[in-house]
Amino acid sequence: MTEFSVLDDGTHWQQDFERRLLASYTAAGFTQAAAERVLEGVRAGIGDWTIAEITDAGVRVGYVAVVVADNNGALAGRIGDLHIDAPHTGRGHEQAARDWAERWCAERGARRLSIRLTEPAGALFDGYGVRGQLRTRHIDAPPKALAGVTARPMTPAEYPDWLASEKAAYVGDIVRSGALGRTEAVRKSDRDFAELIPQGLATPDHTFLVLEAQGEQIGTGWLKHRYLPGVTFGYALYIQEQHRGKGYGRAAMAAGEQATLEAGDTTLMFNVWGGNEVAMNLYTSAGYHVVEETRSTGLPPSAA
């Protein structure tokens, strides 16, 4: 029988959790320094987590970590970790742990529950909607550019229209993923862009590109270099709708990869919002691996 005991001291769990996270990040192509940097951010947020040891007949078989916190004015739960040790998988402990986490969060007022997956979870969270993915690719050599497609720096005159378009697209992505309603998404968009590029085109370590084919603008790109040690983050590589279906999406990625190498980084990373299957399929075909996947579901009111 699967049982759960909340721990007063989560030291042993944290050591195991951090070891597993580091292994997953390095397996995805991060340098050790980049993996350590990501882990620092995770470590900073786990102080409020509740850790439960999972046992079966008195034998520890794994851990589950949960937290409930305010998220844009509403209580939301999160499964920070759900891990069953290899010798004990496939015996129903995973399902029992998920049910326990959902119940624990619902009892504390959460109406939504999310999880960030960094390990294969089988079908356990198939009922949770995909809200986003973090994808990476290690760039071994300069990419092959698509004939006829060029990338140049964005001009100050082009920047205002680009910014308005990117903010609107960001709002649309958030709403489509189910993460927030439109009003909250607009606030988040305004806040995030002000924080990310406070100096516009002059913001250090950022590259803003305009993609052209046959003298016509077909898309844009925005990248942040040294986001992590050796890692460039691609905030956006966009092909205008009328130019899609011509292979330009891959050309945009090649431009991003080239800019990554020129900045001295060797890994390019993207976030893909849930519901954007076209982008997910493009990244998969181009060799970008899923490092993290965020999923979420609604929770019924607790009967407690």
TrEMBL record:
GO terms for molecular function: dioxygenase activity. CDD domains: NAT_SF. Coiled coil: none annotated. Residues 149-304 form the N-acetyltransferase domain. Keywords: Acyltransferase, Dioxygenase, Oxidoreductase, Transferase. It holds the Pfam family Acetyltransf_1. InterPro entries: Acyl_CoA_acyltransferase, Bact_Acetyltransf, GNAT_dom. Transmembrane segments: none annotated. PANTHER family: AMINOALKYLPHOSPHONATE N-ACETYLTRANSFERASE-RELATED, AMINOALKYLPHOSPHONATE N-ACETYLTRANSFERASE-RELATED-RELATED. This is Aromatic ring-opening dioxygenase LigA. It comes from Streptomyces incarnatus.
